[in-house]
Every structure is written in structure tokens, then in C-alpha cells.
Write a structure and sequence with these properties.
The protein is built from 12 helices and 12 strands. The protein has 337 residues and is α/β, with parallel strands linked by helices. It has a 6-stranded parallel β-sheet with strand order 6-7-5-8-9-10, sandwiched between helices. Strands 2-1-3-4 form a 4-stranded parallel β-sheet. It has a two-stranded antiparallel ribbon with strand order 11-12. A hairpin with a 2-residue loop joins strand 11 and strand 12. Helix 5 crosses helix 11. The longest helix has 14 residues, at 114-127. The N and C termini lie far apart (43 Å). 38% of the residues are buried. The mean pLDDT is 90.
């Protein structure tokens, strides 16, 4: 654990947002710094009410750091004016993680396929006796892990929100699976959304490695505009059927999941993963809930729950591999700017 000159140690810290990441941040820092809490919803986490402060109190305290939940939109929240005024103090739990640990990390982002790719890679590392921890946007807060050793490897699913707010965080291995238009209601423009994703590469130092989709228009355009310190691998995701003769798992029938595997197979040698064991992991992978999840099979009827697909690009990957499909949609349309 890194301690020397740690910017979160013995500081006045405000944690804004008391969801999973906020609570884990509090538990991690409560004995290391002077920590205060705030949430837009006063009913949240009443067990911690002694540390929850109000708007008036916040204005009177000179905080050294502000740790914000990625789900909070700075431009549309109760502390909007305060956060904009103190924006240089805003951090994420990923920043805290990086400031305390030197561990090897593999961070995966992209519009589609992040969770599946992160889970397969984590499973592969576990199957090969590695101390892997799956954290981030997949639902496991970065600071909730215990018994971290020098051999611990972090597999991190990172959303554009997390990357956008992070200032210190960087990862030895960075993966951008794809980029299509998404979350414009939050980022205000496609350019801002792409920039948030590419913070993952921008923060890398020499000796790091990045893996990006080769035939992705937005990724290619961004790479041409900027230079990066890491070694960048362009991952081919075309002609996929010729690459996976040893993979019998029907979960990987869709082009989207085949693309996810392209990245796994590309990064595996760098991580020194045994190929035969990796294929075994892939063939027994059952998938994640709500992501192309087969929930019913009887005679000529198969029901697939793909409700985690929140963009057309994500849904298209499975729909074009199905015949006679009925596509049931619901929810609130995303706003476009």
C-alpha cells in the first residue's frame, strides 16, 4: 500500500453520493482522514447520519478532496454550484484506489461488452490461480476489496462517467472495445463522450499497453489526432468465424461476444495465460444476467433476456444472428443533444 505523500491521507474529505461506491469509500477512508458525507436523498443510509452534513455546513468547510459517485451529474444535482466552484478537488474511488495501491490493473471500457469481457478475463485469471479482483462499473466497488497483496490483480470495468471524473487513476493495461454514440444526455456531445473514454489511454505511461478495436471509426479518428505513451495494439474483429474453431460455447454466437473474445485472446499472452486453460474457461462461461441470457427454452420457443442492452448497437449484435425473432422494447428513451 502506498502511503508516502498520499493526497487522501489525513485530509478533510467530502464523499458525495451514498450508493455502493460512496459507502465503500467511507469505510476505506474513515480511519485515514476526516470524512464527511452528503447525498441528495436524505433518507439514504441513515445509519451514517452522524457523518452526514447539510448544504449549509458544506459551504463552511474547506474540503481538501471531494469524492463523487460516478452516477451524479455535476451539472444537475443539489451541489452543482459548489462542485463547479471546487471542480479541481473532485475525484473518484478509482483515484483513491490508485493512490493507495501499486497493483497491476487491467481496465476495460467501451460502449458495449465491458461487463462480459471483464468477467471472462477475471474468470480466466482465477482459473489460472491468480488473485484477481473484479471491480468497478460491474457492481463491485473499487474500495470494497480486502486482503490486497502485491500479487493482487485488479480487473476493472470502467464507465465513461468514472473515467471522466478521475484525475489520478491509470492502468497498466487499457482496453477500449468499441465506441458508438451513447450517454450524450450526460456528456453533452459525442466529442466529450469519446474524450472521456480516451482518458484511459491518455493517463497511461511508457511501459503500459493499450488494446483498441481496429475497425472502429471513432477510435481510429481519435488515435490519429493524439499521441500516447503506451504501446497500442489494434485488435482485428473482422472474419471472426475463422478464429474460434475450439470454442463450442453457444453464448458466443453473436458477433459482439466474438469481438469481446478477440480482445481476450489478444491480451492473454501478455498476461502469460495458458491458452488451453483459457479455452476451457471460455467454453464453460455462462454469461451474465440480463445480457443475452437464455431464460426459457421449449420446442420452438426460446426467450432471451437482453435487457442490459441500452443502445441499438448492443442489441444489433444478437438480433442479426437470430431468425424469427420478436424484439420487445421498453424503458425511457435517451435524450439527444
Amino acid at each position: 500500500m502506498k502511503i508516502f505523500n498520499n493526497i487522501f491521507l489525513r485530509k478533510k474529505i467530502l464523499i458525495y453520493g451514498l450508493g455502493k461506491s460512496g459507502i465503500s469509500s467511507y469505510k476505506f477512508l474513515k480511519n485515514k482522514s476526516d470524512v464527511y458525507l452528503f447525498d441528495d436523498n436524505k433518507k439514504n443510509n441513515l445509519k451514517l447520519k452522524k457523518k452526514i452534513i447539510n448544504l449549509e455546513q458544506i459551504q463552511k468547510i474547506n474540503f481538501d478532496r471531494i469524492i463523487i459517485s460516478p452516477g451524479i451529474d455535476i451539472s444537475d444535482c443539489k451541489l452543482s454550484k459548489f462542485l463547479k466552484k471546487n471542480f479541481q478537488k473532485v475525484h473518484t474511488d478509482l483515484d483513491v484506489l490508485f493512490s493507495f495501491y501499486n497493483n497491476e490493473s487491467i481496465t476495460i471500457t467501451g460502449t458495449n461488452g465491458k461487463s462480459t469481457t471483464a468477467k471472462i478475463l477475471h474468470d480466466a485469471l482465477i482459473d489460472q490461480k491468480k488473485d484477481s479482483r473484479l471491480i468497478g462499473n460491474i457492481g463491485n466497488p473499487a474500495l470494497s476489496e480486502e486482503n490486497i497483496t502485491k500479487k493482487t490483480i485488479f480487473v476493472i470495468e470502467a464507465s465513461s462517467y468514472q473515467l471522466d471524473y478521475s484525475r489520478l487513476f491509470r492502468s497498466k493495461y487499457a482496453v477500449i472495445l468499441n465506441i458508438t454514440q451513447d450517454h450524450i444526455e450526460r456528456h453533452k456531445s459525442l466529442k466529450n463522450y469519446v474524450n472521456a473514454k480516451f482518458k484511459l489511454l491518455k493517463s497511461q505511461k511508457k511501459g503500459s499497453f493499450a488494446y483498441v478495436k481496429k475497425d472502429d471509426e471513432l477510435i481510429t479518428k481519435k488515435l490519429k489526432k493524439n499521441k500516447y505513451s503506451s504501446k497500442i495494439y489494434r485488435v482485428h474483429t473482422s472474419n471472426l468465424n475463422n478464429k474460434f474453431n475450439e470454442i463450442t460455447n453457444k453464448y458466443f454466437i453473436s458477433d459482439g461476444n466474438k469481438e469481446n473474445l478477440s480482445f481476450i485472446l489478444k491480451i492473454a499472452p501478455r498476461l502469460k495465460l495458458n491458452y488451453k486453460k483459457l479455452i476451457k474457461t471460455i467454453n464453460k462461461f455462462k454469461g451474465l444476467d440480463y445480457r443475452q441470457q437464455i431464460i426459457f427454452v421449449k420446442k420452438n420457443l426460446t426467450i432471451i433476456n437482453d435487457s442490459k442492452s441500452t443502445s441499438f448497437a448492443s442489441s444489433e449484435n444478437i438480433l442479426k444472428n437470430l431468425n424469427g425473432a420478436y424484439w420487445i422494447l421498453g424503458g425511457i428513451p435517451k435524450k439527444r443533444r
